[in-house]
Amino acid sequence: ISNGNTVVTDNDTTNELQSLQLAQDTLLSLTGKPGTVNLGHLLDNTDKQEISFNSNDTTLSISNGNTVFVKSLMDNTDNQTISFENGQLGISNGNTVDISSKKIAFRASKKAGSTPIFVDDSTTLIFNNERLDFSSNYNHETGIFTVPEDGSGIYYFQITYNFVSDIRLRIIKNGSILENILFNKSHTGMLSYPFVLELQENDTIQIRFVVVSGSFASTGEGYFTGHKLF
Fold first, then answer.
1. Does residue 200 surpass a pLDDT of 90?
2. Which stretch, 54-58, 91-95, 211-215, 224-228, has highest mean pLDDT?
3. Contact present, 222 and 126 (Cβ < 8 Å)
4. The dihedral of CA 46, 49, 55, 60: what is its sign?
5. Do β-strands 138-139 and 129-133 pair in parallel, antiparallel, or remain unpaired?
6. Going along the chain, which residue ranges are E strands?
7. Cβ contacts of residue 179 below 8 Å, gap of 6+?
8. pLDDT in tens, 34-85
9. Are 148 and 163 spatial neighbours (Cβ–Cβ below 8 Å)?
Protein backbone atom coordinates (compact mmCIF):
# COMPACT_ATOMS: atom_id res chain seq x y z
CA ILE A 1 0.00 0.00 0.00
CA SER A 2 1.37 3.45 -0.87
CA ASN A 3 3.18 5.06 2.03
CA GLY A 4 2.72 1.77 3.90
CA ASN A 5 3.93 -1.82 4.08
CA THR A 6 3.67 -4.98 1.96
CA VAL A 7 2.34 -8.48 2.70
CA VAL A 8 2.71 -11.84 1.02
CA THR A 9 -0.63 -13.25 -0.19
CA ASP A 10 -1.67 -16.86 -0.79
CA ASN A 11 -2.73 -17.24 -4.40
CA ASP A 12 -3.80 -20.88 -4.02
CA THR A 13 -7.62 -20.95 -4.20
CA THR A 14 -7.90 -24.60 -3.18
CA ASN A 15 -5.67 -25.16 -0.19
CA GLU A 16 -8.36 -24.07 2.30
CA LEU A 17 -11.01 -26.37 0.88
CA GLN A 18 -11.27 -29.24 3.35
CA SER A 19 -13.68 -32.09 4.09
CA LEU A 20 -14.65 -34.01 7.19
CA GLN A 21 -14.19 -37.76 7.00
CA LEU A 22 -15.37 -40.57 9.29
CA ALA A 23 -13.48 -43.85 9.17
CA GLN A 24 -14.27 -47.14 10.90
CA ASP A 25 -17.43 -45.52 12.30
CA THR A 26 -15.45 -43.80 15.06
CA LEU A 27 -12.41 -41.90 13.60
CA LEU A 28 -13.13 -38.30 12.59
CA SER A 29 -10.49 -36.48 10.49
CA LEU A 30 -10.04 -33.37 8.37
CA THR A 31 -8.47 -33.61 4.89
CA GLY A 32 -5.10 -31.92 4.61
CA LYS A 33 -4.55 -32.07 8.36
CA PRO A 34 -2.74 -34.76 10.34
CA GLY A 35 -4.40 -36.63 13.16
CA THR A 36 -7.88 -38.00 13.92
CA VAL A 37 -10.41 -37.76 16.74
CA ASN A 38 -11.78 -41.01 18.14
CA LEU A 39 -15.55 -40.79 18.78
CA GLY A 40 -15.91 -44.34 20.02
CA HIS A 41 -16.70 -43.30 23.58
CA LEU A 42 -19.81 -41.49 22.35
CA LEU A 43 -21.34 -44.66 20.90
CA ASP A 44 -22.78 -45.92 24.16
CA ASN A 45 -26.39 -46.34 22.81
CA THR A 46 -27.82 -44.50 25.79
CA ASP A 47 -30.55 -43.20 23.49
CA LYS A 48 -31.80 -46.73 22.87
CA GLN A 49 -34.55 -46.83 25.46
CA GLU A 50 -37.94 -48.45 25.92
CA ILE A 51 -41.03 -47.16 27.67
CA SER A 52 -43.25 -49.44 29.76
CA PHE A 53 -46.42 -49.22 31.83
CA ASN A 54 -47.19 -51.24 34.96
CA SER A 55 -50.96 -51.46 35.40
CA ASN A 56 -50.62 -52.91 38.91
CA ASP A 57 -49.09 -49.82 40.45
CA THR A 58 -49.89 -47.41 37.57
CA THR A 59 -46.27 -46.46 36.92
CA LEU A 60 -44.82 -45.30 33.64
CA SER A 61 -41.11 -46.09 33.21
CA ILE A 62 -38.32 -45.66 30.68
CA SER A 63 -35.31 -47.97 30.60
CA ASN A 64 -32.13 -46.44 32.02
CA GLY A 65 -34.32 -43.60 33.22
CA ASN A 66 -36.92 -42.79 35.85
CA THR A 67 -40.46 -43.82 36.80
CA VAL A 68 -43.56 -41.70 37.36
CA PHE A 69 -46.96 -42.50 38.89
CA VAL A 70 -49.87 -41.74 36.55
CA LYS A 71 -52.79 -42.94 38.66
CA SER A 72 -54.03 -39.38 39.14
CA LEU A 73 -54.50 -39.10 35.39
CA MET A 74 -56.70 -42.20 35.19
CA ASP A 75 -59.93 -40.52 36.24
CA ASN A 76 -61.90 -41.62 33.12
CA THR A 77 -62.99 -38.07 32.41
CA ASP A 78 -62.73 -38.93 28.71
CA ASN A 79 -65.42 -41.60 29.11
CA GLN A 80 -68.25 -39.42 27.79
CA THR A 81 -71.53 -39.87 25.94
CA ILE A 82 -73.12 -37.64 23.31
CA SER A 83 -76.88 -37.06 23.59
CA PHE A 84 -79.51 -35.21 21.59
CA GLU A 85 -82.92 -34.14 22.89
CA ASN A 86 -85.32 -31.35 21.93
CA GLY A 87 -82.77 -29.73 19.65
CA GLN A 88 -80.03 -29.81 22.31
CA LEU A 89 -76.75 -31.59 21.51
CA GLY A 90 -74.86 -32.42 24.69
CA ILE A 91 -71.91 -34.37 26.04
CA SER A 92 -71.84 -35.92 29.51
CA ASN A 93 -69.75 -33.99 32.05
CA GLY A 94 -69.70 -31.17 29.52
CA ASN A 95 -71.94 -28.59 27.94
CA THR A 96 -74.88 -28.52 25.53
CA VAL A 97 -75.48 -26.49 22.39
CA ASP A 98 -78.77 -25.60 20.77
CA ILE A 99 -78.82 -26.84 17.15
CA SER A 100 -82.57 -26.76 16.68
CA SER A 101 -82.23 -23.83 14.29
CA LYS A 102 -80.07 -26.04 12.04
CA LYS A 103 -82.76 -28.69 11.58
CA ILE A 104 -84.94 -28.31 8.51
CA ALA A 105 -87.92 -30.66 8.54
CA PHE A 106 -91.69 -30.49 8.39
CA ARG A 107 -94.69 -32.80 8.45
CA ALA A 108 -98.35 -31.86 7.97
CA SER A 109 -101.52 -33.87 7.46
CA LYS A 110 -105.05 -33.32 6.19
CA LYS A 111 -108.35 -34.95 7.01
CA ALA A 112 -110.90 -36.46 4.64
CA GLY A 113 -113.97 -34.55 3.48
CA SER A 114 -112.30 -31.87 1.37
CA THR A 115 -114.37 -29.62 -0.88
CA PRO A 116 -114.79 -31.19 -4.37
CA ILE A 117 -112.59 -29.85 -7.13
CA PHE A 118 -114.44 -29.11 -10.37
CA VAL A 119 -113.44 -28.74 -14.01
CA ASP A 120 -110.78 -26.12 -14.75
CA ASP A 121 -109.97 -25.80 -11.07
CA SER A 122 -106.28 -25.79 -10.13
CA THR A 123 -106.13 -26.41 -6.40
CA THR A 124 -103.13 -26.65 -4.09
CA LEU A 125 -103.48 -29.49 -1.62
CA ILE A 126 -103.43 -27.90 1.82
CA PHE A 127 -102.17 -30.14 4.60
CA ASN A 128 -103.39 -27.89 7.37
CA ASN A 129 -102.52 -29.91 10.46
CA GLU A 130 -98.85 -29.25 11.18
CA ARG A 131 -97.27 -32.06 13.16
CA LEU A 132 -93.80 -30.52 13.19
CA ASP A 133 -91.97 -27.69 11.46
CA PHE A 134 -88.50 -27.07 12.87
CA SER A 135 -87.65 -24.18 10.57
CA SER A 136 -91.22 -22.75 10.44
CA ASN A 137 -91.12 -22.72 6.64
CA TYR A 138 -94.25 -24.75 5.85
CA ASN A 139 -97.39 -22.64 5.56
CA HIS A 140 -100.38 -24.72 6.69
CA GLU A 141 -102.78 -22.14 5.28
CA THR A 142 -101.43 -22.16 1.71
CA GLY A 143 -99.85 -25.63 1.56
CA ILE A 144 -96.56 -24.14 0.38
CA PHE A 145 -93.10 -25.04 1.74
CA THR A 146 -90.47 -22.30 1.30
CA VAL A 147 -86.87 -23.55 1.30
CA PRO A 148 -84.86 -21.75 4.04
CA GLU A 149 -81.38 -22.49 2.61
CA ASP A 150 -79.64 -24.13 -0.34
CA GLY A 151 -79.34 -27.91 -0.30
CA SER A 152 -80.82 -31.27 -1.21
CA GLY A 153 -83.89 -32.62 0.54
CA ILE A 154 -86.22 -35.59 0.43
CA TYR A 155 -89.98 -35.01 0.23
CA TYR A 156 -92.89 -37.40 0.47
CA PHE A 157 -96.63 -37.15 0.28
CA GLN A 158 -99.51 -39.59 0.52
CA ILE A 159 -103.11 -38.88 -0.45
CA THR A 160 -106.39 -40.77 -0.93
CA TYR A 161 -108.57 -39.66 -3.83
CA ASN A 162 -111.84 -40.16 -5.69
CA PHE A 163 -111.91 -39.11 -9.37
CA VAL A 164 -114.83 -39.01 -11.77
CA SER A 165 -112.67 -36.80 -13.94
CA ASP A 166 -109.63 -36.47 -16.11
CA ILE A 167 -107.17 -35.02 -13.60
CA ARG A 168 -103.54 -34.08 -13.19
CA LEU A 169 -101.63 -34.29 -9.94
CA ARG A 170 -98.49 -32.17 -10.06
CA ILE A 171 -95.43 -31.06 -8.10
CA ILE A 172 -95.18 -27.28 -8.44
CA LYS A 173 -91.85 -25.49 -7.95
CA ASN A 174 -91.83 -21.69 -7.81
CA GLY A 175 -95.29 -21.60 -9.38
CA SER A 176 -94.34 -23.76 -12.39
CA ILE A 177 -94.89 -27.44 -13.12
CA LEU A 178 -91.88 -29.48 -12.01
CA GLU A 179 -93.41 -32.92 -12.54
CA ASN A 180 -96.73 -34.53 -13.46
CA ILE A 181 -97.21 -37.34 -10.95
CA LEU A 182 -100.57 -38.77 -11.98
CA PHE A 183 -102.84 -38.80 -15.02
CA ASN A 184 -106.08 -40.60 -14.27
CA LYS A 185 -109.73 -41.04 -15.14
CA SER A 186 -112.58 -42.30 -12.94
CA HIS A 187 -110.58 -43.98 -10.19
CA THR A 188 -110.44 -44.24 -6.42
CA GLY A 189 -107.33 -45.12 -4.48
CA MET A 190 -104.27 -43.89 -2.61
CA LEU A 191 -101.06 -42.42 -3.97
CA SER A 192 -97.70 -42.37 -2.16
CA TYR A 193 -94.85 -40.50 -3.82
CA PRO A 194 -91.30 -39.78 -2.55
CA PHE A 195 -88.97 -37.42 -4.40
CA VAL A 196 -85.54 -35.82 -3.89
CA LEU A 197 -84.85 -32.26 -4.99
CA GLU A 198 -81.87 -29.93 -4.94
CA LEU A 199 -83.28 -26.51 -4.18
CA GLN A 200 -82.09 -23.00 -3.46
CA GLU A 201 -83.05 -20.61 -0.70
CA ASN A 202 -86.58 -19.20 -1.13
CA ASP A 203 -87.65 -21.84 -3.68
CA THR A 204 -91.23 -23.00 -3.07
CA ILE A 205 -92.78 -26.47 -3.34
CA GLN A 206 -96.47 -27.43 -3.34
CA ILE A 207 -98.72 -30.26 -4.55
CA ARG A 208 -101.54 -29.27 -6.88
CA PHE A 209 -104.65 -30.88 -8.42
CA VAL A 210 -105.87 -29.83 -11.85
CA VAL A 211 -109.23 -31.12 -13.14
CA VAL A 212 -109.15 -31.25 -16.94
CA SER A 213 -112.60 -32.71 -17.66
CA GLY A 214 -115.40 -34.67 -16.05
CA SER A 215 -117.66 -33.93 -13.11
CA PHE A 216 -115.47 -33.61 -10.01
CA ALA A 217 -112.49 -34.91 -8.04
CA SER A 218 -112.01 -35.03 -4.31
CA THR A 219 -109.17 -35.90 -1.96
CA GLY A 220 -109.26 -37.62 1.39
CA GLU A 221 -106.74 -38.11 4.17
CA GLY A 222 -103.08 -37.58 3.51
CA TYR A 223 -99.84 -35.98 4.64
CA PHE A 224 -96.90 -34.06 3.24
CA THR A 225 -93.41 -34.21 4.77
CA GLY A 226 -89.83 -33.30 3.97
CA HIS A 227 -86.40 -32.75 5.48
CA LYS A 228 -83.01 -31.52 4.34
CA LEU A 229 -80.40 -34.17 3.59
CA PHE A 230 -77.30 -31.99 3.12
1. yes
2. 224-228
3. no
4. positive
5. unpaired
6. 20-23, 27-30, 36-38, 51-54, 59-62, 67-69, 82-85, 88-91, 96-98, 105-110, 122-124, 129-133, 138-139, 144-146, 151-173, 176-199, 204-228
7. 170, 171, 195
8. 677 777 666 766 667 888 888 788 888 888 778 887 777 666 666 778 887 7
9. no
